[in-house]
Amino acid sequence: SNVFPRKEELNQLIKDNNMVSINICGKMEMEISQLEPEERQVFLEDLGLKESGIERLCRIGYEHLGLITFFT
């Protein structure tokens, strides 16, 4: 696309090196962060999403780093 003309090249580099890429829309994340929990869930469902981009970033980061969280 014109927004990122070398996207396919980057995707191939990511694939060839067993890396992970996560696309996040900052404007959408800002909008999500300003919603009440109930509105937020409806908003995500309307978009066909189970989690926000920030939540996905954290989850995938933890998975790839082998980290776990303990709530104390």
Question: Top keywords for this entry?
Answer:
57% helix, flat, mainly alpha, 0% strand, 72 residues
Report on the structure:
The protein has helices at residues 7-16, 26-33, 37-46, 53-65. The protein is built from 4 helices and no strands. The chain is mainly α. The chain has one domain (7-65). 57% of the residues lie in helices and 0% in strands.
User: Share of helix among residues?
Assistant: 55-70%
Tell me the major beta sheet: none
Task: Compute the number of helices.
Answer: 4
Order of helices and strands: HHHH
Detail the poorly predicted runs.
none
Structural class by SSE content: mainly alpha
Q: What is the straight-line distance between the termini?
A: 46 Å
> What count of structural domains?
1
Q: What global shape is seen?
A: flat
Beta fraction of the residues? Answer: under 5%
Q: What is the gyration radius calculated from CA atoms?
A: 15 Å
**Strand segment tally:** 0
Arithmetic mean of pLDDT: 92
InterPro entries: P-loop_NTPase
